[in-house]
Amino acid sequence: MRTKALRTRMAALVGLALLLALAAGCASGPGTDSGDGSNGGGSRGTISGTVVNASDAPVEGATVTINTNTAGNVTTTAANGAFSFPNVLFGTYIVSATKASTGYFGTAEQSVTLNAQSPSPQITLKLQDGGTPPPPPF
Asked: How far is CA 70 from the centre of its chain?
């Protein structure tokens, strides 16, 4: 009887250890990180840049967005037109800028790839100058 109870306790401890090991593996994310950005293992970088107008003057208050297939982040440019998205996972993103006011219309977009060779790319997005935005299509 004592041997059976000991076996039951050992099986429970082994099961608990396996469960904890599995949970720790899931929490660390997919795969291992080779540092080259190829396996989604968690390497991160910063996307930053400036939004300017057609005369290359900075655009304050522009809305800048980075998008992937699953998420989006939004920020607003400073007085010098600067923006920054720190702590972004390595991958390819579409960065877009708009300014919802008279004087500008349209959206400036650029594809950006973060990887070990380019962990902190600097980009410039140029908005079109113009009067009132064109009316929406009907």
From this structure: 10
